[in-house]
Design brief:
Elements: H1 6-18, H2 28-39, E1 45-48, H3 56-66, E2 74-77, H4 82-88, H5 101-113, H6 121-134, H7 142-151, E3 167-168, H8 169-179, H9 190-203, E4 207-213, E5 216-221, H10 223-232, E6 244-247, E7 259-262, E8 278-280, E9 301-303
């Protein structure tokens, strides 16, 4: 329900009621009239699942169309954002608590194994390890489960930060782009693709505790997903395949697989890191940069913020 555009939503409701797709493209006014004809005097329950839109005016427009129902007609909204519940609700929002570890595993068992009485011990071990992430996957193949855990490379970035670290959405998307984790999609800008990926991961509970501050979106990574991602991407890596280096300011971060944390820049020979895509040198009080940085042909993200003494950049850049 992230796309809350009124015409699209009303069309979807009409098609759900009639059980068939509408032919052709109807304007908004006739769509509104058709929906009101269908709901007029009816006691209905409309469920809007996973709503993100926080625009009060757009919701007021939808409510005006739906008011033709009989007494008792209701709209049930699910959302991950508290503000949406407050805007859309006429009753106090009901906040669901997180699933316990036992309930999460029980749900995963039902989805993955169905009515099977005997479970492969290897599958059970993998399932318990990954249950918070993969409960929607109904495969009972050990290889496909492990592949599912390994192939979602986008979550690597979150593993660099300790648990409960607050991350900023657009910064994370910029890092995804720098690492080449995002693929182009039609005429969409990579930033827009990144927003889609972020929303998908959030809907699958990879991210939580969403907070809007000064027009920016901040969030944290789910602890169990963090544990899994660290497990999957904790292999040691040589300088030839290190893709990201963070120096000093992120000393609280972790070196993991493709990413390296350095306490000092003075001894760092960046030219040795031929696969480097991200280099964070923020807040180091640098006077200048070595020309060797220009030889990093794969570099896509260079952070020099808060280095006020730097007056010029190497020509290679």
């Amino acid at each position: 329900m992230d796309d809350f555009e009124e015409k699209r939503l009303i069309k979807a409701i009409v098609e759900s009621i009639e059980g068939k797709s509408l032919l052709g493209d109807m304007d908004l006014a006739p769509l509104q009239k058709k929906l009101q004809d269908l709901l007029n005097g009816q006691r209905y329950l409309l469920v809007l699942d996973d709503v993100w839109n926080e625009n009060q005016g757009e919701w007021d427009n939808i409510k005006a169309v739906l008011k033709v129902g009989a007494q008792g007609a209701s709209v049930l909204v699910t959302t991950s954002l508290e503000r949406v519940g407050l805007i859309m609700g006429t009753l106090q929002p009901y906040e669901l608590s997180n699933l316990s570890q036992e309930d999460c595993w029980s749900l995963f068992m039902q989805r993955a194994f169905g009515q099977e009485k005997e479970i492969n011990p290897n599958l059970e071990a993998i399932g318990k390890e990954d249950c918070a992430k993969m409960w929607w996957c109904a495969s009972s193949s050990q290889d496909s489960w492990r592949y599912f855990a390994l192939q979602e490379r986008r979550k690597r970035m979150g593993t660099l930060f300790p648990k409960d670290t607050e991350m900023e959405k657009q910064n994370l998307i910029s890092l995804w782009i720098a690492h080449g984790f995002l693929l182009s999609k039609g005429n969409m800008e990579l930033e827009d693709v990144g927003n889609e990926v972020w929303r998908e991961l959030y809907s699958r509970s990879f991210f939580q505790e969403i907070e809007l501050k000064d027009g920016k979106t901040y969030f944290k990574m789910h602890d169990l997903i963090h544990d899994l991602a660290r497990f999957v991407f904790s292999a040691r890596a040589s300088s030839s395949n290190i893709r990201e280096i963070n120096v000093k300011i992120y000393s609280h971060m972790m070196s993991i697989g493709f990413a390296k944390v350095e306490s000092s820049y003075s001894h760092l020979l960046v030219e040795n890191f031929v696969s480097l895509r991200v280099l964070n040198l923020s807040n180091l009080e640098l006077n200048q940069l070595p020309s060797s940085i220009g030889d990093l042909v794969h570099l896509r993200y260079l952070d020099l913020s808060d280095n006020f003494r730097i007056c010029s950049l190497p020509k290679q850049l």
